[in-house]
Amino acid sequence: MTGNEKDALQVFVDVVRRLRKECPWDRIQTNRSIRHYTLEEVYELVEAIDADDQDEMKSELGDILLNVLLHTQIAEDEGKFTLTDMLEAETRKMVARHPHVFGNVDAETPEQVKVNWERIKTEEGRESIFDGIPSAFPALARAFKIQDRAAKVGFDWGNAEEVWPKVKEEMSELEEVVSTNKERRVEEEFGDLLFSLVNYARHIGVHPETALRVATEKFKKRFEFIEAELTKLGKSLHDTGLEEMNALWEKSKLE
Q: Of the four, 72, 79, 109, 200, which is 20 to 30 A from 253 by CA?
């Protein structure tokens, strides 16, 4: 870290500490009360990354750092831990989990690094390989993470071609319960299908959460195109038939 970076960081830390003392809103906050702001900032950063908007990325990273420092200052004010405590603990953890950098362990590939990482976390006292995966994770991301953890200890399909028949099997089971009107099993079978698709996505190098977010945004933009075209024609969605909307949908693909 350069001298300028250290100075800039210290100025920012001092600003957060002053806000905590002098701003009526900042003064009453707790770690719990601002946790949803922290989550929102992470999602906003992801959106900026997806858009490859460097100015917005810079801004959102700053907002996340603000949240980190504010959470830490709140903890310090409550006598729980300090910024120094947090930084030293994280430094020790990173050094311990990278023995191929700071020790004499060999790890020539990213895959070897990941295997070592999970082994070290187990040695640190984790009771289950799934410990540390938040239950509040988005469902697709959590399924991906759980499958990835199981794969690291060898519980996995060999390749994507082996997974695909399982996807088709789950699809058939879903079709069966829907056609026979077994309502209580529809949700379960639909979940099984999604879980198998997550597994397939993992094997072809796709993160399902990212893929679904991109697909949803694509749908949103194409439908907004339909709305804009109808507005030009002096019409609304409510007085437009499906055939006309489909025609505009196809036009949106060309646009």
A: 200
Decide whether 3-87 matches 139-206 in CATH topology.
yes
Report whether 122 contacts 129 (CB < 8 A): yes
Q: Residues 115-128: pLDDT tens digits?
A: 888 788 778 878 88
Options 3.30.450.40, 1.10.760.10, 1.10.287.1080, 3.40.50.2300; CATH for 139-206 is: 1.10.287.1080
pLDDT in tens, 215-254: 999 999 999 999 999 999 999 899 899 999 999 999 999 8
Q: Domain segments of the chain: what residues?
A: 3-87, 139-206, 211-254
Q: State the pLDDT at residue 37.
A: 94
Query: Regarding the domain delimited by 3-87, which CATH topology (the fold level of the hierarchy) does it fall under?
Result: Helix Hairpins (1.10.287)
Residues of the chain with pLDDT under 70: none
State how far the Cα of 196 lies from the Cα of 170, in Å rounded to an integer: 8
205-to-110, 114, 185, 208 alpha-carbon distances in Å: 14, 15, 30, 9
Write 11-18 long-range contacts (CB < 8 A, 24+): 12/65, 12/66, 12/69, 13/69, 13/83, 16/66, 16/69, 16/70, 16/73, 17/73
Res 89: pLDDT:
95
* ∠ CA 137-25-85, rounded to 5°: 60
